[in-house]
Sequence to fold (434 residues):
Amino acid sequence: MKRSLSRETRMALEPRKQPRQERSSKVVDRILDAALILTREQGTKTPTTLAIARRAGLSVGSVYQYFPNKEAILLDLARRWLSSFPEVIARRIKVPPPINRDEFRQEVRKLFIDTSRIYLENATLMPVIEAISGNADLRPIQDEYDEQIIALYAAWLQHVNPALEDKIASRLGVLMMDVGHACRLVGLKRDRKTYDLIEDDVERMWLALVSPYLNLD
Amino acid sequence: MKRSLSRETRMALEPRKQPRQERSSKVVDRILDAALILTREQGTKTPTTLAIARRAGLSVGSVYQYFPNKEAILLDLARRWLSSFPEVIARRIKVPPPINRDEFRQEVRKLFIDTSRIYLENATLMPVIEAISGNADLRPIQDEYDEQIIALYAAWLQHVNPALEDKIASRLGVLMMDVGHACRLVGLKRDRKTYDLIEDDVERMWLALVSPYLNLD
DNA sequence: AAAGAATGCGACTAATTATTCGCGTTTGTC
DNA sequence: GACAAACGCGAATAATTAGTCGCATTCTTT
Fold:
């Protein structure tokens, strides 16, 4: 076990090599699929390399052909999710800022709907996201993404209301992110109808959260 | 490592023996203190038995005199926290239900303040609570407590508005708990002033969440 | 079809860590 | 101060798992 080594080198999490032949890119897919299925089956616990290999019908050795370590597999699964947040929020900052209360509300609603879609589209990934949060090695990486997302939420708030202080914007940003995340995780574990009800709940809460600071009362 | 054994027997988590002599009850305290400090130092990662023993100035053997396994130590730390929630909510159900809008709001506020106090009083325990959430073995136990707390939040909602449907009450209960928890964890990691601001934020969100269902608009 | 590159394999290594057990030491009791 | 019970110790055990390496197989190219 060269555990300590990989910890020291601050983890290369990039794929180890690009697949050159067709069979091997199928192998990469099989590994990712297996990791996803196992993570979903086991709740929060991250699957072992052996379990992933067996589930994919491969040997451990093959797994390490394409991934430098176990963490890289989970991270690869999560990457699309992790990166779509910044994209979506950034897009909502590009539009011209609202000029009256009705438009304010509309902007909140749009951001709300866009972020909600990310959750719906990545519903099957949620166990992976939860597993990453619970994994001591991967947590810091997620935290970095979170920082970014918070900063973007804050930037959005200041886009909507340029007079908003940095400190307040960043506090509200954290809460928007965390409240949205917590509630939507609950929603995705229930049926679609309940998810939609919870979405309404979240929207009310978001509005209540930001209203005093965006003069929406 | 009799790991699988302890997993099979579905974990006896009770203290293994009561200290009979004075020195040993001090030892138990030292173990708990060490576990708390280490958990705080290491963020979410649960400390190893060896680390706990060393930090407490003891040998592993001594740790196992009083705790059947590692999990029991963390659970012992968290026990007061885990049990104070049900107590506090239950107490808020015992009072006569509100009869007008102003009293409704007052009741929300009281529950809000009481639950906030639990967080403030147990601020140092929060890393342990987070570690428990991230630990595959302890998570189920916390989930049981959570079920209980959700049921009590739901009961409180129906106490305040007896006409509220079970399903709605339980959905709102989950969200009250999760939103409160997520935001307060954020708050406790910041300074006291920010914590208070976040408390205001949470209160607004709680009110926005339940208002449509308690005729508070 | 032959060579060489890419891929696949899995026994093996080694790190980590939970838990036990038998023995020496301390404490309370008479 | 003698005896038993309680306590404390830590080397040893054993389970789990990440990651490696050299050999075997399959593919691509000519």
About this structure: Residues 4-10 of chain B have pLDDT under 50 and may be disordered. DSSP finds ten helices and no strands in chain B. Residues 183 and 201 of chain B are 9 Å apart (CA to CA).
